[in-house]
Amino acid sequence: MTDWTIFKLAGCLVVLPLAALAGVNVNVSGSAYVDFMGTDTADARQNSLSGLTPELALKLDVDATDELAVSVRACLGCHGVTLDRFHVEWTPTPAFNVQVGRITVPFGDFTQRYDTSAHRAASKPLIYEMGRMVFGRQNQMNLGVTPTPYGDTGALVYGQVWLGKLVQLWYGAYVVGGFKGENDLDWASMYQSYFNDNNRIPSGGARVVLTYSAEVPGAVLKDVSLGVSGMGGGYDRAHTRNTFAFAADLSARIGPITARAEVALRRTDINPNLPGYRLEVIDPWIEKSGFYVELEHALFDRVLLGYRFDGLQRAGVPLPGADPRLQPVTLLLRYTQAVQVNIITGLFAKGSYEYWLPSPFGSAHVFHLGLGGVF
Protein backbone atom coordinates (compact mmCIF):
# COMPACT_ATOMS: atom_id res chain seq x y z
CA MET A 1 0.00 0.00 0.00
CA THR A 2 1.45 3.36 -1.01
CA ASP A 3 1.66 6.45 1.20
CA TRP A 4 -0.87 8.24 -1.02
CA THR A 5 -3.45 5.45 -0.68
CA ILE A 6 -2.92 5.35 3.09
CA PHE A 7 -3.48 9.13 3.22
CA LYS A 8 -6.78 8.90 1.33
CA LEU A 9 -8.06 6.00 3.40
CA ALA A 10 -7.06 7.71 6.64
CA GLY A 11 -8.87 10.84 5.49
CA CYS A 12 -12.05 8.84 4.97
CA LEU A 13 -11.78 7.22 8.41
CA VAL A 14 -11.44 10.64 10.05
CA VAL A 15 -13.96 12.64 8.03
CA LEU A 16 -16.81 10.13 7.97
CA PRO A 17 -17.19 9.68 11.75
CA LEU A 18 -17.24 13.47 12.07
CA ALA A 19 -19.94 13.59 9.41
CA ALA A 20 -21.97 11.03 11.34
CA LEU A 21 -21.65 13.10 14.51
CA ALA A 22 -22.82 16.16 12.59
CA GLY A 23 -26.06 14.40 11.68
CA VAL A 24 -25.14 13.45 8.11
CA ASN A 25 -26.37 10.03 7.00
CA VAL A 26 -23.40 7.65 6.67
CA ASN A 27 -23.70 4.09 5.33
CA VAL A 28 -20.82 1.62 5.63
CA SER A 29 -20.85 -1.70 3.77
CA GLY A 30 -18.38 -4.10 2.28
CA SER A 31 -17.40 -7.61 1.37
CA ALA A 32 -14.50 -9.98 1.94
CA TYR A 33 -13.61 -13.09 -0.01
CA VAL A 34 -10.57 -15.38 -0.01
CA ASP A 35 -10.17 -17.78 -2.92
CA PHE A 36 -7.89 -20.75 -3.36
CA MET A 37 -7.14 -21.52 -7.01
CA GLY A 38 -5.51 -24.79 -8.01
CA THR A 39 -4.71 -26.45 -11.34
CA ASP A 40 -3.29 -29.72 -12.63
CA THR A 41 -0.98 -27.97 -15.12
CA ALA A 42 2.36 -26.47 -14.06
CA ASP A 43 2.31 -23.99 -16.94
CA ALA A 44 -1.14 -22.73 -16.00
CA ARG A 45 -0.11 -22.50 -12.36
CA GLN A 46 2.95 -20.38 -13.23
CA ASN A 47 0.95 -18.11 -15.53
CA SER A 48 -1.87 -17.17 -13.15
CA LEU A 49 -2.38 -16.13 -9.56
CA SER A 50 -2.87 -19.65 -8.26
CA GLY A 51 -2.97 -20.25 -4.52
CA LEU A 52 -4.72 -17.94 -2.07
CA THR A 53 -5.97 -14.58 -3.37
CA PRO A 54 -7.90 -12.00 -1.32
CA GLU A 55 -10.69 -9.80 -2.60
CA LEU A 56 -11.77 -7.19 -0.08
CA ALA A 57 -13.95 -4.11 -0.47
CA LEU A 58 -15.01 -1.32 1.89
CA LYS A 59 -17.77 1.03 0.74
CA LEU A 60 -18.70 4.32 2.38
CA ASP A 61 -21.67 6.44 1.30
CA VAL A 62 -22.41 9.85 2.82
CA ASP A 63 -25.69 11.65 2.10
CA ALA A 64 -24.90 15.33 2.64
CA THR A 65 -28.37 16.42 1.43
CA ASP A 66 -31.32 14.81 -0.34
CA GLU A 67 -29.61 15.52 -3.67
CA LEU A 68 -25.88 15.44 -2.86
CA ALA A 69 -23.82 12.43 -1.74
CA VAL A 70 -20.24 11.19 -1.58
CA SER A 71 -19.36 7.57 -2.37
CA VAL A 72 -16.03 5.83 -1.69
CA ARG A 73 -14.99 2.25 -2.41
CA ALA A 74 -11.55 0.90 -1.50
CA CYS A 75 -10.55 -2.44 -2.97
CA LEU A 76 -7.84 -4.98 -2.16
CA GLY A 77 -7.21 -7.68 -4.74
CA CYS A 78 -4.67 -9.04 -7.18
CA HIS A 79 -3.78 -5.42 -8.10
CA GLY A 80 -3.02 -4.42 -4.51
CA VAL A 81 -4.92 -1.67 -2.71
CA THR A 82 -6.66 0.98 -4.76
CA LEU A 83 -9.67 3.30 -4.75
CA ASP A 84 -11.90 2.22 -7.62
CA ARG A 85 -14.58 4.76 -6.68
CA PHE A 86 -14.38 8.16 -4.98
CA HIS A 87 -16.94 10.61 -6.34
CA VAL A 88 -19.47 13.29 -5.53
CA GLU A 89 -22.96 12.55 -6.85
CA TRP A 90 -25.74 15.02 -7.58
CA THR A 91 -29.19 13.43 -8.06
CA PRO A 92 -31.83 16.14 -8.67
CA THR A 93 -34.19 13.87 -10.69
CA PRO A 94 -34.32 10.18 -11.72
CA ALA A 95 -33.81 11.26 -15.34
CA PHE A 96 -30.68 13.35 -14.77
CA ASN A 97 -27.82 12.69 -12.34
CA VAL A 98 -24.12 13.57 -12.27
CA GLN A 99 -21.07 11.85 -10.76
CA VAL A 100 -17.70 13.64 -10.60
CA GLY A 101 -14.42 12.19 -9.33
CA ARG A 102 -13.18 8.63 -9.63
CA ILE A 103 -16.15 6.78 -11.11
CA THR A 104 -16.98 3.20 -12.02
CA VAL A 105 -17.10 3.26 -15.82
CA PRO A 106 -20.39 1.67 -17.03
CA PHE A 107 -19.15 -0.64 -19.79
CA GLY A 108 -21.05 -3.90 -20.20
CA ASP A 109 -23.51 -5.68 -17.95
CA PHE A 110 -20.87 -7.20 -15.66
CA THR A 111 -20.02 -3.70 -14.38
CA GLN A 112 -23.06 -4.04 -12.11
CA ARG A 113 -22.05 -7.48 -10.74
CA TYR A 114 -18.26 -7.46 -10.38
CA ASP A 115 -18.28 -7.76 -6.58
CA THR A 116 -17.60 -11.39 -5.71
CA SER A 117 -20.83 -11.59 -3.69
CA ALA A 118 -22.89 -10.67 -6.78
CA HIS A 119 -21.94 -13.53 -9.12
CA ARG A 120 -21.82 -17.28 -8.59
CA ALA A 121 -18.46 -18.29 -10.07
CA ALA A 122 -15.18 -17.49 -8.32
CA SER A 123 -13.78 -16.07 -11.55
CA LYS A 124 -15.12 -13.40 -13.89
CA PRO A 125 -15.92 -13.79 -17.60
CA LEU A 126 -12.77 -13.85 -19.73
CA ILE A 127 -13.60 -10.55 -21.41
CA TYR A 128 -13.51 -8.91 -17.94
CA GLU A 129 -11.15 -11.18 -15.99
CA MET A 130 -8.13 -10.00 -14.03
CA GLY A 131 -5.83 -12.03 -11.75
CA ARG A 132 -7.63 -15.38 -12.03
CA MET A 133 -7.16 -15.61 -15.79
CA VAL A 134 -4.89 -18.44 -16.91
CA PHE A 135 -2.42 -17.39 -19.64
CA GLY A 136 -3.46 -13.75 -19.20
CA ARG A 137 -0.03 -12.24 -18.52
CA GLN A 138 1.12 -9.20 -20.48
CA ASN A 139 3.34 -11.25 -22.85
CA GLN A 140 0.47 -13.70 -23.47
CA MET A 141 -3.21 -12.68 -23.87
CA ASN A 142 -2.72 -9.51 -21.76
CA LEU A 143 -6.09 -10.02 -20.04
CA GLY A 144 -9.41 -9.41 -21.78
CA VAL A 145 -11.33 -6.57 -23.36
CA THR A 146 -11.36 -4.49 -20.17
CA PRO A 147 -10.86 -5.61 -16.56
CA THR A 148 -13.44 -5.02 -13.86
CA PRO A 149 -13.76 -3.04 -11.76
CA TYR A 150 -12.75 -0.30 -14.18
CA GLY A 151 -12.46 2.89 -12.15
CA ASP A 152 -11.27 6.10 -13.80
CA THR A 153 -11.10 9.83 -13.16
CA GLY A 154 -13.82 11.84 -14.86
CA ALA A 155 -17.53 12.67 -14.91
CA LEU A 156 -20.65 10.62 -15.63
CA VAL A 157 -24.12 11.86 -16.55
CA TYR A 158 -26.83 9.22 -16.19
CA GLY A 159 -30.52 8.72 -15.64
CA GLN A 160 -33.53 6.54 -16.24
CA VAL A 161 -36.97 7.15 -17.72
CA TRP A 162 -40.04 4.96 -18.10
CA LEU A 163 -41.42 4.34 -21.58
CA GLY A 164 -44.90 3.34 -20.57
CA LYS A 165 -45.54 1.16 -17.50
CA LEU A 166 -43.32 -1.83 -18.28
CA VAL A 167 -40.30 -0.52 -20.19
CA GLN A 168 -37.46 1.45 -18.64
CA LEU A 169 -34.58 3.20 -20.44
CA TRP A 170 -31.29 3.76 -18.58
CA TYR A 171 -28.55 5.89 -20.13
CA GLY A 172 -25.07 6.98 -19.14
CA ALA A 173 -22.46 9.12 -20.90
CA TYR A 174 -19.01 9.86 -19.51
CA VAL A 175 -15.66 11.54 -20.02
CA VAL A 176 -12.66 9.91 -18.32
CA GLY A 177 -8.87 9.83 -18.46
CA GLY A 178 -8.96 6.59 -20.45
CA PHE A 179 -6.71 3.56 -20.79
CA LYS A 180 -2.92 3.79 -20.57
CA GLY A 181 0.01 2.13 -22.32
CA GLU A 182 2.53 2.58 -25.12
CA ASN A 183 2.34 -0.43 -27.43
CA ASP A 184 -0.87 -2.17 -26.27
CA LEU A 185 -2.58 -1.43 -22.98
CA ASP A 186 -0.78 -1.59 -19.64
CA TRP A 187 -3.47 -2.64 -17.16
CA ALA A 188 -1.23 -2.33 -14.10
CA SER A 189 -0.91 1.42 -14.74
CA MET A 190 -4.68 1.80 -14.26
CA TYR A 191 -4.29 0.97 -10.57
CA GLN A 192 -1.36 3.24 -9.72
CA SER A 193 -1.80 5.68 -6.85
CA TYR A 194 -1.96 8.87 -8.93
CA PHE A 195 -4.98 8.57 -11.21
CA ASN A 196 -4.12 11.38 -13.63
CA ASP A 197 -4.49 11.12 -17.40
CA ASN A 198 -1.23 10.17 -19.11
CA ASN A 199 -1.86 12.22 -22.28
CA ARG A 200 -4.09 15.07 -21.00
CA ILE A 201 -6.76 14.35 -23.64
CA PRO A 202 -9.87 12.64 -22.22
CA SER A 203 -11.55 9.53 -23.55
CA GLY A 204 -15.29 9.07 -23.63
CA GLY A 205 -18.09 6.56 -23.90
CA ALA A 206 -21.73 5.75 -23.30
CA ARG A 207 -24.06 2.93 -22.30
CA VAL A 208 -27.79 2.45 -22.92
CA VAL A 209 -29.98 -0.26 -21.35
CA LEU A 210 -33.59 -1.06 -22.24
CA THR A 211 -35.44 -3.18 -19.65
CA TYR A 212 -38.86 -4.82 -19.81
CA SER A 213 -40.31 -5.70 -16.39
CA ALA A 214 -43.37 -7.93 -16.15
CA GLU A 215 -45.90 -7.02 -13.48
CA VAL A 216 -48.19 -10.03 -13.95
CA PRO A 217 -48.04 -12.37 -10.91
CA GLY A 218 -46.80 -15.82 -11.88
CA ALA A 219 -45.42 -14.67 -15.26
CA VAL A 220 -42.77 -17.04 -16.66
CA LEU A 221 -40.82 -14.21 -18.29
CA LYS A 222 -40.15 -11.83 -15.41
CA ASP A 223 -37.86 -9.26 -17.06
CA VAL A 224 -35.54 -8.80 -20.03
CA SER A 225 -32.69 -6.29 -20.45
CA LEU A 226 -30.75 -5.35 -23.55
CA GLY A 227 -27.67 -3.16 -23.23
CA VAL A 228 -25.18 -1.55 -25.62
CA SER A 229 -21.87 0.07 -24.58
CA GLY A 230 -19.08 1.87 -26.39
CA MET A 231 -15.95 3.82 -25.51
CA GLY A 232 -12.80 5.12 -27.15
CA GLY A 233 -9.86 7.50 -27.05
CA GLY A 234 -6.08 7.77 -27.14
CA TYR A 235 -4.07 5.64 -24.73
CA ASP A 236 -0.38 6.48 -25.22
CA ARG A 237 1.44 9.52 -23.81
CA ALA A 238 1.87 11.15 -27.23
CA HIS A 239 -1.81 10.50 -28.10
CA THR A 240 -0.85 8.96 -31.45
CA ARG A 241 -2.56 5.60 -30.90
CA ASN A 242 -6.20 4.95 -30.08
CA THR A 243 -8.33 2.16 -28.66
CA PHE A 244 -12.04 1.61 -29.22
CA ALA A 245 -14.32 -0.91 -27.47
CA PHE A 246 -17.90 -2.08 -27.95
CA ALA A 247 -20.14 -4.45 -25.97
CA ALA A 248 -23.69 -5.76 -26.23
CA ASP A 249 -25.48 -7.75 -23.53
CA LEU A 250 -28.78 -9.54 -23.01
CA SER A 251 -30.19 -10.86 -19.73
CA ALA A 252 -33.51 -12.38 -18.72
CA ARG A 253 -35.23 -14.03 -15.77
CA ILE A 254 -37.22 -17.00 -17.04
CA GLY A 255 -39.05 -18.74 -14.23
CA PRO A 256 -36.42 -19.76 -11.66
CA ILE A 257 -33.51 -19.31 -14.11
CA THR A 258 -31.46 -16.19 -14.76
CA ALA A 259 -29.79 -16.21 -18.18
CA ARG A 260 -27.14 -13.79 -19.43
CA ALA A 261 -25.12 -13.40 -22.60
CA GLU A 262 -22.61 -10.75 -23.62
CA VAL A 263 -20.17 -10.02 -26.43
CA ALA A 264 -17.37 -7.46 -26.36
CA LEU A 265 -14.67 -6.26 -28.74
CA ARG A 266 -11.74 -3.86 -28.49
CA ARG A 267 -9.38 -2.69 -31.25
CA THR A 268 -6.10 -1.12 -30.13
CA ASP A 269 -3.55 0.60 -32.35
CA ILE A 270 0.08 -0.52 -32.05
CA ASN A 271 3.42 0.89 -33.24
CA PRO A 272 4.54 -1.15 -36.28
CA ASN A 273 8.00 0.50 -36.34
CA LEU A 274 9.32 -0.96 -33.07
CA PRO A 275 12.08 -3.58 -33.35
CA GLY A 276 11.54 -7.16 -32.22
CA TYR A 277 8.43 -8.33 -34.09
CA ARG A 278 8.92 -11.98 -35.09
CA LEU A 279 6.30 -11.70 -37.85
CA GLU A 280 5.62 -9.05 -40.46
CA VAL A 281 3.24 -6.35 -39.24
CA ILE A 282 0.42 -6.17 -41.77
CA ASP A 283 -2.34 -4.55 -39.71
CA PRO A 284 -1.08 -2.00 -37.12
CA TRP A 285 -3.65 -2.98 -34.50
CA ILE A 286 -4.66 -5.72 -32.08
CA GLU A 287 -8.24 -6.89 -31.76
CA LYS A 288 -9.60 -8.52 -28.61
CA SER A 289 -13.06 -10.07 -28.78
CA GLY A 290 -15.00 -12.50 -26.68
CA PHE A 291 -18.28 -13.66 -25.25
CA TYR A 292 -19.91 -15.45 -22.35
CA VAL A 293 -23.20 -17.28 -21.86
CA GLU A 294 -24.26 -18.18 -18.34
CA LEU A 295 -27.21 -19.60 -16.44
CA GLU A 296 -27.88 -19.64 -12.72
CA HIS A 297 -30.64 -20.95 -10.50
CA ALA A 298 -31.32 -22.07 -6.93
CA LEU A 299 -31.03 -25.79 -6.16
CA PHE A 300 -32.22 -25.46 -2.55
CA ASP A 301 -32.96 -22.48 -0.35
CA ARG A 302 -29.26 -21.91 0.38
CA VAL A 303 -27.60 -23.51 -2.64
CA LEU A 304 -27.15 -21.69 -5.96
CA LEU A 305 -25.76 -23.23 -9.14
CA GLY A 306 -24.10 -21.46 -12.05
CA TYR A 307 -22.99 -22.58 -15.50
CA ARG A 308 -20.85 -20.54 -17.88
CA PHE A 309 -19.25 -21.02 -21.28
CA ASP A 310 -17.01 -18.19 -22.46
CA GLY A 311 -14.25 -17.39 -24.89
CA LEU A 312 -11.61 -14.78 -25.67
CA GLN A 313 -9.77 -14.26 -28.96
CA ARG A 314 -6.70 -12.17 -29.67
CA ALA A 315 -6.12 -11.25 -33.32
CA GLY A 316 -3.00 -9.39 -34.40
CA VAL A 317 0.74 -9.80 -34.71
CA PRO A 318 2.50 -10.99 -31.51
CA LEU A 319 4.30 -8.05 -29.93
CA PRO A 320 8.05 -7.91 -29.24
CA GLY A 321 8.81 -10.14 -26.25
CA ALA A 322 5.58 -12.15 -26.58
CA ASP A 323 5.33 -15.79 -25.52
CA PRO A 324 6.50 -17.89 -28.52
CA ARG A 325 3.22 -19.85 -28.39
CA LEU A 326 1.16 -16.72 -29.09
CA GLN A 327 -0.23 -16.85 -32.64
CA PRO A 328 -1.60 -14.14 -34.98
CA VAL A 329 -5.00 -15.53 -33.96
CA THR A 330 -5.15 -17.09 -30.49
CA LEU A 331 -8.40 -18.37 -28.96
CA LEU A 332 -9.13 -19.36 -25.36
CA LEU A 333 -12.34 -21.28 -24.50
CA ARG A 334 -13.49 -22.25 -21.02
CA TYR A 335 -16.37 -24.09 -19.38
CA THR A 336 -17.21 -23.28 -15.74
CA GLN A 337 -19.44 -25.09 -13.26
CA ALA A 338 -20.02 -23.17 -10.02
CA VAL A 339 -21.85 -23.64 -6.74
CA GLN A 340 -22.48 -21.12 -3.97
CA VAL A 341 -23.71 -22.12 -0.53
CA ASN A 342 -25.20 -19.39 1.66
CA ILE A 343 -24.18 -20.67 5.09
CA ILE A 344 -25.92 -17.96 7.09
CA THR A 345 -27.07 -14.47 6.17
CA GLY A 346 -24.03 -12.60 4.89
CA LEU A 347 -21.66 -15.63 4.87
CA PHE A 348 -21.16 -17.83 1.81
CA ALA A 349 -18.84 -20.48 0.37
CA LYS A 350 -18.00 -20.96 -3.30
CA GLY A 351 -16.67 -23.82 -5.36
CA SER A 352 -15.91 -23.77 -9.09
CA TYR A 353 -14.51 -26.15 -11.66
CA GLU A 354 -13.11 -24.78 -14.93
CA TYR A 355 -12.00 -26.67 -18.00
CA TRP A 356 -9.78 -24.59 -20.26
CA LEU A 357 -10.06 -26.19 -23.68
CA PRO A 358 -6.89 -26.92 -25.70
CA SER A 359 -5.27 -23.80 -27.16
CA PRO A 360 -1.72 -22.84 -28.24
CA PHE A 361 -0.97 -22.67 -24.50
CA GLY A 362 -2.42 -26.13 -23.85
CA SER A 363 -5.41 -27.17 -21.75
CA ALA A 364 -5.98 -26.97 -18.01
CA HIS A 365 -8.29 -28.16 -15.26
CA VAL A 366 -8.76 -25.43 -12.64
CA PHE A 367 -10.71 -25.48 -9.38
CA HIS A 368 -11.61 -22.76 -6.88
CA LEU A 369 -12.62 -22.99 -3.23
CA GLY A 370 -13.49 -19.81 -1.39
CA LEU A 371 -15.16 -18.30 1.63
CA GLY A 372 -16.64 -14.83 1.80
CA GLY A 373 -19.04 -12.52 3.51
CA VAL A 374 -20.89 -9.23 3.10
CA PHE A 375 -22.07 -6.63 5.58
Largest sheet: 16 strands, antiparallel, barrel
Strands, count = 16
- Secondary structure class reads mainly beta
Unreliable stretches: 1-8
What percent of residues adopt helix (DSSP H or I)?
under 10%
**Order of SSEs:** HEHEEEEEEEEEEEEEEE
Query: How much of the sequence is in beta strands?
Result: over 45%
General shape: globular
Distance between the termini: 24 Å
Gyration radius over CA: 21 Å
Strand order of the largest sheet: 1-2-3-4-5-6-7-8-9-10-11-12-13-14-15-16
Overall mean pLDDT score? Answer: 90
Explain the layout of strands and helices.
Elements lengths: L2 H19 L3 E15 L2 H5 L4 E13 L4 E10 L2 E14 L2 E9 L46 E12 L4 E10 L26 E11 L7 E14 L7 E13 L2 E13 L15 E14 L4 E13 L13 E16 L2 E10 L7 E11 L1
Antiparallel strand pairs: 1-2, 1-16, 2-3, 3-4, 4-5, 5-6, 6-7, 7-8, 8-9, 9-10, 10-11, 11-12, 12-13, 13-14, 14-15, 15-16
Explain this structure.
- By secondary structure, the protein is mainly beta.
- 6% of the residues lie in helices and 53% in strands.
- The protein has two helices and 16 strands.
- The protein has helices spanning 3-21, 42-46; strands at residues 25-39, 51-63, 68-77, 80-93, 96-104, 151-162, 167-176, 203-213, 221-234, 242-254, 257-269, 285-298, 303-315, 329-344, 347-356, 364-374.
- The protein has a 16-stranded antiparallel beta barrel.
- The two termini are 24 Å apart.
